[in-house]
Amino acid sequence: MRQSFTIGIGGAAGQGVATPGDIFCKIFSRRGLHVNAYNAYQSIIRGGHTFLTVRTGPDPVTNMGDSMDLLVPLNQDTMDRHLRLLKAGGACLYNDQITPSTPAEGVQLCPIPVAKLADITRNKLAQNTLTMGAALSMAGIGFPALESVIVEQFRKKDQSVIDENVSVARAGYDYATQNFRPFAWPLPMTENRYAVLSGNAAMAMGGAAAGVKFYCAYPMSPSTGVLHWMADHARKAGIVVRQVEDEIGVINMAIGAAHAGVRSMCATSGGGFALMSEGLGLSAQAEIPVVVIDCQRAGPSTGVPTKTEQGDLWQMLGAAFGDYPRVIAAPLDIGDCFTLMAEIFNIVDRFQCPGIVLCDLLLAEGRLSVDPQVLNFRPHVDRGELITSNGSDTHEEYKRYLITESGVSPRVIPGVPGHTHVVSSDEHDENGVLISDEYTNATKRRAMMEKRMRKEAGIAASVPAPKLAGPADAQVTLIGWGSTDGVIDEARELLADQGISANQLQIRWLVPLHGDAIVEILKNSKHTIIVENNFSGQFARYLRSETSFVANGHIRKYDGEPFMPHHIVEAVKDQLAGKTNLSVPTHEVMV
Amino acid sequence: MATDVVIPNLMVMADLKGRVDPDWCPGCGDFGVLAAVQKALVELQIPQHEVVTVSGIGCSSNFPGFIETYGMHTLHGRSLPVASGMKLANHAMTVLVTGGDGDGFGIGCGHFVHTMRRNLDLTYIVMDNQIYGLTTGQTSPTSRIGMKTKSMPFGNVDAPVNPISLALAAGATFVARGFSGDQKHLVEILSKAIQHKGFSFIDVFSPCVTYNKDNTFQWFRPRVKKLEDNPEYDHGDWQMAMEKSTLWGDEIPIGLFFERTDVLAAHDAEPVLNAGPLVHQEMLIPEDVVKSFIHELM
Question: ipTM exceeding 0.90?
Answer without folding.
Answer: yes
